[in-house]
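Tokens help. Consider this.
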Amino acid sequence: MLSIQPKPSIPSCSPTKVTPHLLPCRTTHNGSVNASKFYWSPEPSSEDSNSQVAYFRGRRLLGREIRLPDTHRGVVARTTERTVERKEEEGQHFGEQDDYGDVGIEEEEDKAEVKILEEVGGFERVVLWGHEELPGESEEFVRGVGEWIGFAEGVHSWEGKV
């Protein structure tokens, strides 16, 4: 399991605001890039106010901005080897019988180690890029974001709202 927490070195500082760009290509690099304006400089499209145009290695790319709902936020996180310290509930320990004869209060998954993800950045929008055309509503990522937001709302809703 994972727990997202702010960087411990600067607790009062808010995470850096970023805009993820999802390009229609594959790369084996996973990390930061020193991309100068010469190589990557998206500009607003003259065709649509919600789109951008950029050229990458001579290819024209059109980008569509996807905003997250106000109730959600995007997080850029870095894995760590730190873990969350567990606190046992007072009065009962794992393996003991309670007043009803049930053994233990923890499930198997509750005993799992919880690793910490450090929050290093945050975002409110994502730009999805396509070759020569804007990604449509049927694009995998666009559908996936909508499905995950719907799923999260269902999981976190009250029974009376459903």
Observations:
- Strands lie at 2-6, 16-17, 21-22, 43-44, 51-56, 59-67, 74-83, 115-123, 125-131.
- Residues 140-155 form the longest helix (16 residues).
- The first strand starts at residue 2 and ends at 6.
